[in-house]
Amino acid sequence: MSEFYTELKELRESQNIDLDEIHSRTKINMEYLLALENGQLDVLPLPYARLFLRAYVIEIGGNADEALRQLDIFQGRKVGKRLPKKTEQDELKTPQSTHKIKRPSQTRTPTKVRQDLIKGGLLLIVFLFAIFIIKKINEERSPATIENGEIVLAENPDAITNDQLVNNYVEAVSQTVAMAVEAPLKLKIVTSERIWYSITADTYAPQAGILPAGDEKSLSFENQIYVRLNQTAGTTLYINGIKVNELGEFNHPAGIQFFAEPSTITVKHYLPQR
Q1: Which tens digits make up the pLDDT trace of 140-190?
Q2: pLDDT more than 70, % of the chain
Q3: Which domain range does residue 216 map to?
Q4: What's the structural domain count of the chain?
Q5: Which residue positions in the chain have pLDDT lower than 70?
Q6: How far apart are CA 257 and CA 24, in angstroms?
Q7: pLDDT for 25-37, tens place per residue?
Q8: Does residue 114 fall inside a structural domain?
Q9: 98 belongs to a structural domain
């Protein structure tokens, strides 16, 4: 049985697709494309191996999910198996303790009840105040300004400006896919990590800010929208409720451009320059 990467190469050749075409469309380095087809996966930047493979397989008309599964097997990862559900008979076999713990009864005086209520009220106030302070600290919002046609969040070390993107990063991969969505259009960002974002849409003034961990942001637009993120790890993006699978999970910047006509989305990932 041949290795999965050999089968992918044979599929590409059977489709008469040249590696140069894939390089031109996806922006994946030719060195990485050759490494993919030769099974030299240690050459690829570790966090981007799956992203590169997915983009490559889509370009040659293969099954991306199956290719990623084969990659996991090739790299020695275990493919999880579902544990059998407990049956009703199993539940009956589970020993259950019938021993009841007797608790001594306590008599509380009206004075004791009032003291407990006061203490509980004070603790609740302190708790709510702590939540308020923590939320303010996490937001760390500064006013956004526009400089040379781009959004800059003042005094924010997480912000990724155009100059930083050009001077400090290189475009690693670009994927453009069709999305079957219709107006009205709505973008939604959900994150489990603290991220920086900037959004340029055709219906609102440009905006940027920090999205705290566990938060989300939604924005309606008409025809096009551009989103820049300082990272995609822990972040999910939706257009009209449809998940953008090409976003991935990476600790480097990404740019996402959506056009309504034709209905396509382009996701570009950037790596730090060597």
Answers
A1: 444 444 444 444 444 466 788 888 888 899 888 888 999 888 888 999 999
A2: 78
A3: 144-272
A4: 2
A5: 1-2, 46-47, 77-108, 133-157
A6: 18
A7: 888 888 888 888 8
A8: no
A9: no
* CATH classification at residue 70: 1.10.260.40
Nearest-angstrom CA–CA distance, 9 and 120 = 68
Whole-number Å distance between alpha carbons of 180 and 264: 8
Q: Is residue 113 part of a domain?
A: no
Number of H helices and number of E strands within the chain? 8, 12
The Cα–Cα gap between 209 and 156 comes to: 9
Written as six digits, the tokens of 225 are 């929208």
Among residues 27, 43, 74, which one ends one of the domains? 74
**Which pLDDT value is given to residue 103?**
52
Cβ within 8 Å of residue 52, ≥6 positions away: 28, 32, 33, 36, 44, 173
Residue 121 has, within 13 A of its CA and on its CB side, a CA count of 6
Tell me how far CA of residue 184 lies from CA of 60, 188, 221, 241, in angstroms.
Answer: 33, 13, 7, 12
Closest by alpha carbon to 187, among 197, 175, 172?
197
Structure tokens at 148: 């040379």
Single residue among 74, 89, 104 that ends a domain in this structure: 74
Cα 156 from chain centroid (whole Å): 21
